[in-house]
């Protein structure tokens, strides 16, 4: 483990970016494309949309609720073995799901087991990346998370083709094989020790500090609201288009259209986050507001041209808000507490991930259409934008640093000796 006074802003960090790129593709690329399986599960098990929606929601919620476990294990053993173990769990869950005979089996295999694997992969990888970068953090995060958009573009039609060739059980076996590549992603992670690490203390001390950190708590509330509506198109857009008498393959392809503009939005937002002066939270508020408005406009679009235009816009704005969402956290709590902070945020916002899709499915069952589902999803994102305005320095022109906003910790930071020159250089 190399000891550095500050993040190196490069070096092996670019290999961590590569690892995070494939890891994000194999976690959220699969989750975003899982709407293709939604119609198949409804038909196979003859269950209402609300109950089937719990499969993806439990997976998202477990991934986020279990993030503090992945963070604590990464603090103790380093991110590499934790992510590799998570890859094995994610693949095993998909493998067992192929033999399911009821929705309960899918809740346990995909939702609980694969979700636990995702919890051990996503948060430790993103936290490790944040520790390698400071000035280029938003751009590095944006590049890493482009894997979500590119894989969504490929996975949605691929999964639809697999369903047509091998049915849903055979398709899940192949998704399990894809998920096993998370083990290779974990092998690329090299832990990095920074000078501020001894100051922030262990996981218990960090948790106590964060629970008394007002800006961190408000930011957590904002992300929970955003998360409630964020995934709705990826779960129910295909079903919404089927209600409009679209054929299955074009409906799945429209979901891929969002994936075309998604990586463009992530890279553009990452570059702007590093280039534009001022806190990154302002960019996050902008992209969140635009995404909420677009979701609310979906029910009014009936023509294919309008639906394609909205989907392209949604892909760009929803992709753009992701890298800056992760870049705001180090500005609030510092890189020394990023493992614990990111894990805690993911755990709390799992409430939104757990309730969002079932609420959308319930509104569909009650009203008979997805109109209320998309409007309510947009309202949740707009509410999250309102909370972001309350963060510190939101209206300042200068960008805050990555130092934790805690006067006690900042005073202790000045007492930490810098490592000797050349120590830990690789």
From TrEMBL:
Keywords: Cell membrane, Golgi apparatus, Membrane, Symport, Transmembrane, Transmembrane helix, Transport. Signal peptide: none annotated. The chain crosses the membrane at residues 12-31, 82-100, 106-127, 139-160, 166-189, 216-237, 280-300, 306-326, 338-359, 371-395. InterPro entries: MFS (IPR011701), MFS_dom (IPR020846), MFS_MCT_13 (IPR048233), MFS_trans_sf (IPR036259), Proton-linked_MCT (IPR050327). The keyword Transmembrane helix applies. Residues 402-426 are annotated as: Disordered. GO terms for cellular component: cytosol; Golgi membrane; plasma membrane. GO terms for molecular function: monocarboxylic acid transmembrane transporter activity; symporter activity. It is found in: Cell membrane; Golgi apparatus membrane. It comes from the Eukaryota. This is Monocarboxylate transporter 13. It comes from Monodon monoceros (Narwhal). The gene is SLC16A13.
């Amino acid at each position: 483990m190399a000891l550095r006074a500050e993040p190196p802003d490069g070096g092996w960090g670019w290999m961590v970016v590569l690892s995070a790129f494939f890891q994000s593709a194999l976690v959220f690329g699969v989750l975003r494309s899982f709407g293709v399986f939604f119609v198949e599960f409804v038909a196979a098990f003859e269950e209402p949309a609300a109950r089937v929606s719990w499969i993806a929601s439990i997976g998202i919620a477990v991934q986020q609720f279990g993030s503090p476990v992945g963070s604590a294990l990464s603090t103790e053993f380093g991110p590499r073995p934790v992510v590799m173990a998570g890859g094995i769990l994610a693949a095993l869950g998909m493998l067992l799901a192929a033999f399911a005979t009821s929705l309960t089996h899918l809740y346990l295999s995909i939702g609980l087991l694969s979700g636990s694997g995702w919890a051990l992969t996503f948060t430790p990888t993103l936290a490790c990346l944040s520790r390698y970068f400071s000035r280029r953090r938003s751009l590095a995060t944006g590049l890493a998370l482009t894997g979500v958009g590119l894989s969504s573009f490929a996975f949605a039609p691929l999964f639809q083709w697999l369903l047509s060739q091998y049915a849903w059980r055979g398709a899940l076996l192949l998704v399990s094989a894809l998920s096993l590549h998370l083990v290779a992603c974990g092998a690329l992670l090299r832990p990095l020790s920074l000078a501020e690490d001894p100051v922030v203390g262990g996981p218990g001390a960090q948790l106590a500090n964060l629970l008394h950190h007002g800006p961190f708590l408000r930011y957590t509330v904002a992300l929970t609201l955003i998360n409630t509506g964020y995934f709705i198109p990826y779960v129910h857009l295909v079903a919404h288009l089927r209600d409009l008498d679209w054929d299955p393959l074009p409906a799945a392809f429209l979901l891929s259209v969002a994936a075309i503009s998604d990586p463009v939005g992530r890279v553009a937002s990452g570059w702007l986050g590093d280039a534009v002066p001022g806190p990154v939270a302002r960019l996050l508020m902008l992209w969140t507001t635009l995404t909420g408005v677009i979701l609310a406009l979906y029910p009014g679009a009936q023509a294919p041209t309008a639906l394609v235009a909205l989907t392209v816009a949604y892909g760009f704005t929803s992709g753009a808000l992701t890298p800056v969402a992760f870049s705001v956290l180090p500005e609030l709590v510092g890189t020394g507490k990023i493992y614990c902070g990111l894990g805690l945020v993911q755990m709390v916002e799992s409430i939104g991930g757990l309730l969002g899709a079932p609420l959308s499915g319930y509104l569909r069952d009650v009203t008979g259409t997805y109109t209320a589902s998309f409007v309510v999803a947009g309202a949740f994102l707009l509410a999250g934008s309102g909370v972001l305005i309350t963060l510190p320095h939101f209206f300042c022109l200068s960008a805050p640093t990555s130092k934790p906003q805690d006067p006690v910790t900042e005073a202790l930071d000045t007492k930490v000796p810098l490592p000797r020159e050349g120590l830990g250089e690789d």
